TrEMBL record:
Protein name: PARP
Ranges where the PARP catalytic domain occurs: 1084-1219
Domain DUF1254: 47-179
GO MF: NAD+ poly-ADP-ribosyltransferase activity
């Protein structure tokens, strides 16, 4: 409700509301133009539909100012009110830049995904609205982003490297897909309430009518806590109430307020830029970055709506030395780029020309709107390698014009140089001088803008776990240490080392502790000093007494209670190599290193044709009783890119048992290959749907008489027939001796394929026919059905099964496995199948015509892709029963119930749906553990008769090796580290003592975890030499001290994305730092799956995944030499979790209470925010668990390995093992 206000008060509020609201209304203009106004010229697509434009912007594009013409755009406006939207990104080349800029209704860039942030490996990303609490509902997502407004815009930029690159850009854009969460999961969707959208455009938002648009939009946006007073102030005029109207009483004040707002814009933004007080880099970013400086947000929307945050791209604007804009109608300009300048951006740079008034691209005769780095090869270079770019209204001469170095300019007042993806790996700020002494009027020579250096080094990954980036060395590309003033890390300064040695490596790691830990360290030091003062000289004696004796088998003989200051690395290769090799073998034989298909599950070779292409957006037209097992080919094609699947399991339950339960599409299938409407049931298609959605329809056809008899024997299959009609069918045929002929003649049965090809149901009931209409057996659908048949991307014939499978792979690629050649029908190949005399002369005439047309189409495809020489398919045809048996990829034969087999066969997840149905347990807890399926923690041999699972962790997808060869074993004899470890070990209570402090439920839970650990480690004692070795270590069993694996990168390790060498020398590597300073949990990233801490594994193959990659990208991992530690780890009583614990810094208490501060940590990559984890969060003084154990199922997703996390000095790196990765 508006209040009575004076004209001055209304003017003040109007000015404030205009500055605040103009960017919001400009954003609404785009929403309305792109997603609401279907008849408008700028309309792209409805809400939650992604639209791509495989072209670059031209002067005809007038909705967004200062557009980018280097990167074809894709757009999606997301309505997040009812449910999240999932964005899928295809894998692409490492040297291609792309980005998804996520923008809320305030125009904040609240997140990015793309080359800089998430890499080019592809993935699934979920965007949620402000009120969503449902998590991903089991969908596997690589990262989740929360928008503070219920509507969000994603602007997608994909680098175009030249005209010849346009087709590749189209392929990439086709791989960008958007789904609501329900559509992604194949469930019924949620509908948000309808909205009546008011019309808006740029002409309106420059007038007082803007306040009415703002009033509407603010009613859709939740009030941010920091803006409550501001929004309350707007309500005094009724803005944000939903009822605001411009009237005679307020129009004058509104106009004056707008005038005041533009005056502030001119003073702060325009003059600020001219004076060097404001840069474009300050105008775009998150709410936290802009700090509610609304005039800067206003300036960003005016200067360039949807400008990138400075981490993603940098926009310096050139002006004259006196602050005046460039004007090519009066002057001509040159920009000289030195050889160094040409390589300034990590992705690319461009010089784009905009009209100084409209801020749109400038039309010109050359149709040239920019220069960019991909054009450099076509430009003439000077002797020193520099390139001169000309900007003028008149041609600089035919020679220079033809060299692609001239840009025709008319009324040009602003030129922009853009740096996509700053060269710093972490996107540090790049400041620039926007003008200088080189601007001198006519024929000015615009020298390249000087840059202030930011972070230049490659990431230094934590020494405690090879995980997310934690800190960065202050080192430039050439390996030089950067000056301290150039180091821009947000939380810590790194001192410039004089010499790289062990101590400096340790100092480097210590200096990378985050700010909160700095406080803890200072507090700890203060307490320690107070104790020293209180105890005086007695402290020295106590210190001597607590120095524990080093292990008796150490070679160092100088140790005494008064001296432990020794450091040595003793070579024990001759003594321990064979034993350690056995230990490695025992902890890798159950883990497949390679994604390659092994001989036991070999792929059958089919060469593709020259016309072959990848099939995407697949829609299966599945006619009943016509090639059900074709799903094994589809699922292998879409979901077996990393490993073959066993789709022959439970042939009679190929849907829910072997497919939907065992290999869920969300978890296994590559995004974009299957359409968003892909289902295995018998759902029809229409020609209109195919055109509208771009589906590639595929299907298998079967001789109608054979299909009908098969359907009869399958309980008189009547897909979609209503219960009343089916009852009549059963009663009718019961009176006629229950024959196939009766079934085939029943009204509604014949003509199934004709109806399904035209959007109808296979079986047509009376309710689907007009009253009095005679059943025509599909005759009325025949013409359209034949048209649809011609549009199908693939047609196969069940009677020629193997040849059909060969044709599919000849056309679209992919591996052929034996499971695809197993047909569940009674007869295969050239056999006639059922005796058709049982139909008593009945012929399904319409479907026979369609079958004949399908057969002709199949033969045409054969001729085109296979030809007359069928030998190209000989490898999979005419095989003997013995050959088929030998080739069959069977989980049963390899002793698998779930997980991945040693041959590379993927046996999927436990069939939860089937198990719950079989045992009538709707709330059963079904999990896969050690290759067996457990129901409520009990193995059920009645489900499967198989055993011995294997696994491959997701972090090892890069590996091509299968085993290890131990090369060298050293023992780390470090007195200070050992003393610290042994002293802390004593502070951990014996396990039994800790268990007595728990409730019975927690005791039972913890004992099960301890039994799992015991089982794993006792299994190693099967080898006598390993048992002797473990026994010699005198591990403290009472405190659950174990020997565990930890991998860290050594010298020569490369960045997994760029291939850049991260650690050029041993002395700068995490391995060396661990040897010198031990593990330090303070360096662990709180963004790890289980929070901060030092991570260990009970499998060497898991630790190997974090030991670094050393070969060049694309060369695989064979032959690499890596390092891992065999470490003493005191686990004590572990807390076992089945959900991620991101942001955690210490274990919960023995009653399961987690630290209260976690409640406010909502920025999580894994699982749900802490407030939604259903665990108690409080401040308590209870004793705590000693460690964390991550189980095999985390956040509903199966993990291949357990992980163990400890804190402080609960671990000691006793043995360092160098090994080779082998076939």
């Amino acid at each position: 409700m508006a209040m009575e206000l004076s004209p001055e008060e209304m003017r003040s509020i109007a000015k404030e509301a205009f500055v605040y609201g103009w960017p919001i209304c400009e954003n609404y203009n785009t929403l309305y133009a792109y997603a609401i106004d279907v008849d408008g010229p700028a309309y792209k697509a409805p809400m939650n539909h992604l639209h791509s434009e495989a072209r670059v912007f031209t002067p005809e594009d007038k909705v967004v100012v200062t557009p980018n013409s280097d990167t074809p755009y894709s757009f999606i406006w997301m309505d997040l009110r009812a449910e999240p939207v999932l964005l899928t990104v295809p894998k692409m080349e490492e040297d291609r830049y792309f980005s998804f800029q996520l923008i809320d209704m305030y125009t904040h860039n609240f997140a990015y995904l793309g080359t800089r942030c998430t890499g080019n490996q592809g993935g699934v990303y979920m965007v949620t609205g402000p009120n969503w609490t449902g998590g991903s509902d089991g969908a596997h997502v690589d990262q989740e982003y929360t928008c503070e407004t219920p509507f969000a815009l994603a602007i997608v930029r994909t680098q175009l490297k030249g005209p010849e690159d346009l087709e590749r850009v189209k392929e990439i854009q086709h791989g960008y897909q958007a789904y609501t969460l329900s559509a992604f999961l194949g469930k019924l969707g949620h509908e948000a309430s309808a909205i009546t959208w008011p019309k808006s455009n740029k002409a309106l938002t420059g007038t007082v009518k803007m306040f009415e648009i703002l009033d509407f939009v603010l009613c859709l946006l939740p009030v941010h806590p920091s803006e409550q007073d501001l929004r309350d102030n707007f309500l005094k005029m009724g803005i944000g109430s939903g009822t605001f109207q411009v009237s005679e009483a307020n129009q004058s004040a509104l106009e004056l307020g707008i005038k005041d707002a533009w005056a502030e814009y001119d003073e702060v933004i325009e003059q600020g830029i001219a004076r060097g007080l404001v840069t474009s880099a300050e105008l775009f970013g998150t709410r936290g970055f802009l700090k509610n400086q609304y005039i800067k947000r206003f300036g960003g929307a005016k200067v360039g709506l949807y400008g990138n945050s400075r981490e993603e791209a940098f926009y310096p604007f050139y002006k004259m030395a006196d602050g005046q804009p460039l004007d090519a109608s009066k002057s001509s300009y040159q920009l000289v780029l030195s050889k160094e300048d040409q390589e300034i951006a990590r992705a690319f740079w461009s010089l784009t020309m905009y009209d100084g008034i409209t801020q749109l691209l400038v039309p010109n005769a050359l149709q040239r709107y920019l220069f960019n780095s991909p054009m450099l090869p076509s430009m003439r270079q000077a002797e020193d390698g520099s390139v001169t770019l000309h900007v003028s209204a008149a041609s600089p001469g035919p020679e220079k014009e033809s060299e692609a170095g001239w840009k025709h300019a008319g009324r040009v007042q602003t030129a922009m140089k853009k740096l996509e993806a700053p060269s710093e790996e972490t996107g540090a700020t790049i400041a620039a001088s926007f003008w200088g002494e080189n601007f001198r009027g006519q024929q000015d020579e615009l020298r390249h803008l000087p840059l202030l250096r930011g972070e230049k080094g490659a990431p230094l990954w934590t020494a405690s776990a090879f995980r997310d980036e934690v800190g960065h060395m202050a080192m430039d590309r050439e390996g030089r240490w950067a000056a301290e003033e150039d180091w821009l890390h947000p939380s810590a300064k790194v001192k410039k080392p004089e010499n790289i040695d062990c101590d400096n490596a340790v100092d480097l790691l210590k200096n990378m502790v985050d700010e909160e830990r700095h406080f803890e360290l200072l507090l700890g030091v203060g307490l320690a000093l107070a104790i020293l003062v209180a105890l005086g000289s007695s402290c020295f004696i106590v210190g001597l007494k607590v120095k524990p004796r080093a292990p008796s088998y150490w070679s160092n003989r100088t140790w005494s209670p008064f001296h432990n200051d020794f450091e040595a690395e003793v070579d024990v290769t001759m003594e321990l190599r064979d034993t350690v090799q056995q230990l490695f073998d025992m902890t890798t034989k159950k883990a497949l290193m390679s994604n390659a298909h092994a001989a036991g599950c070999r792929s059958l070779h089919v060469e593709v044709t020259e016309k072959a292409h990848e099939l995407r957006n697949i829609r299966w037209l599945h006619f009943p009783k016509a090639g059900t097992s074709f799903i094994s080919t589809i699922w292998n094609y879409a979901c077996a890119r990393k490993a073959p699947l066993d789709l022959a399991i439970g042939k009679t339950h190929v849907y829910d048992f072997a497919l939907m339960s065992r290999y869920p599409s969300v978890q296994y299938c590559e995004p974009g290959v299957l359409s968003d409407r892909f289902i295995t049931q018998h759902q029809a298609v229409t020609l209109h749907e195919v055109k509208q959605r771009g589906w590639n329809v595929i299907g298998m056809f079967r001789k109608p008489s054979q299909r009908l008899i098969s359907a009869f024997h399958n309980s008189m299959h009547t897909s979609w027939l209503c219960e009343e009609d089916r009852h009549e069918l059963v009663e009718t045929c019961a009176q006629q001796n229950h024959t196939p002929a009766c079934y085939a003649r029943f009204p509604g049965i014949a003509g199934c394929t004709a109806r399904m090809l035209t959007g109808g149901r296979c079986a047509q009931g009376r309710m689907e026919r007009e009253e009095g209409e005679v059943f025509d057996a599909g005759a009325s659908s025949l013409s359209q059905a034949l048209q649809m048949l011609k549009k199908m991307a693939f047609v196969g014939m069940t009677e020629q099964w193997d040849l059909s499978i060969c044709l599919f792979h000849r056309m679209f690629g992919g591996n052929v496995s034996a499971s695809q050649l197993v047909d569940i029908h009674t007869f295969r190949g050239d056999h006639e199948g059922y005796d058709e005399s049982v139909l008593e002369g009945f012929v399904d005439h319409v479907d026979e015509q369609i079958y004949e047309a399908a057969s002709r189409r199949f033969n045409q495809l054969l001729q085109e892709h296979v030809g007359s020489d069928l030998s190209v398919c000989g490898g999979i045809m005419k095989r003997s029963e013995e050959e088929e048996k030998a080739d069959t990829c069977s989980c049963e034969s390899q002793g698998m119930e779930c997980g991945r087999a040693p041959s590379g066969l993927e046996c999927g997840t436990c069939p939860t749906i089937r198990i719950k149905e079989m045992h009538n347990m709707s709330d059963a807890d079904v999990q896969c553990d050690a290759g067996k399926c457990f129901v409520n923690s009990q193995h059920r041999p009645d489900i499967f008769a198989w055993s011995d699972a294997m696994g491959l962790g997701r972090d090892g997808a890069w590996a091509t090796h299968k085993s290890f060869r131990v090369l060298k074993v050293t023992r780390i004899e470090n007195g200070p580290l050992w003393s610290a470890y042994a002293q802390l070990r004593k502070t951990i209570s014996p396990v039994e003592a800790t268990l007595k402090k728990m409730s019975k439920d927690w005791q039972d839970w913890t004992r099960r975890s301890l039994e799992v650990i015991d089982t794993v480690h006792e299994g190693r004692n099967a080898s006598g030499s390993i048992k002797t070795f473990i026994k010699s270590l005198n591990l403290d069993e009472r405190r659950n001290e174990r020997l565990m694996f930890h991998g860290s990168p050594g010298a020569g390790a490369r960045h997994p994305g760029t291939g850049q060498v991260l650690f050029p020398s041993q002395e700068t590597s995490p391995v060396y730092a661990i040897k010198c300073a031990g593990f330090d949990d303070r360096l662990g990233s709180v963004k790890g799956m289980y929070g901060s801490g030092t991570y260990f594994a009970d499998m060497a193959s898991k630790a190997d995944q974090y030991a670094g990659q050393y070969n060049q990208n694309g060369q695989g991992s064979l032959g690499e030499r890596a390092t891992m530690f065999l470490s003493r780890v005191t686990l004590g009583c572990p807390y076992t979790t089945n959900q991620s614990l991101e942001q955690l810094r210490r274990p919960p208490c023995l009653q399961g209470h987690f630290d209260l501060n976690l409640f406010w940590n909502e920025d999580v990559m894994y699982g749900r925010p802490w407030k939604d984890k259903a665990v108690p969060l409080c401040i308590c003084s209870h004793e705590r668990f000693d460690s964390i154990m991550g189980d095999f199922f985390i956040d509903g997703q199966k993990k291949m390995y357990r992980e163990f996390i400890v804190y402080d000095r609960q671990c000691y790196p006793e043995f360092c093992v160098t090994y080779e990765r082998c076939p």
